[in-house]
Here is the input.
Amino acid sequence: MPNNALTWRPHDVQGGPTCLIIEDSHFDHKMMTRVIDRAQSNVVIKLATTLRAARMQLASEDISMIFLDNNLPDGTGVEFALNLATDPKLNHIPIIMVSDWPTPFMWDKADKAGVMSVIKKSEFTVPFVRMALRATTRKLRKAG
Here is the structure.
C-alpha cells in the first residue's frame, strides 16, 4: 500500500472518539499524535497523507473529528472542508484546520464550510486539543 494512498495508525483503545489527521508531513503526524495522546488517552487516531486517502477513511470508518492541514499533495484542505459541508453523511463531523500559515482567504472559506476552528500548528497544544475533544464528546453524547 503506497504511503500517500492510505496511512493510518490505530491505538489499542476502545470507546473513545476517532480522530482523523489529514496531514502529509511525517513530522507533523508525530507531533499531532503525541499531543492528542497527551490530551486524551482513549482517542483512536487515524492518519491520511492525502485527500484521497482521507476520503477512503471517511467511507470506511466512523470518524468523530478531523484535524486538517490546508496544503496537501492533491488539493487544499479548505476546499475539502467545503465539499464535506455539502455531504449529508459527513457534514456533522467537526473539523479543525491546522495550518502553518492561515490566511484571511482560508479563514473565510473555512467559516463558510462550518469549520470548528482554524489554528496555526504552533497552537496545536494539549489544552487546545483537550478542549476540542471535550466539545466533540459532548456533541456525540447529545446526538447518540
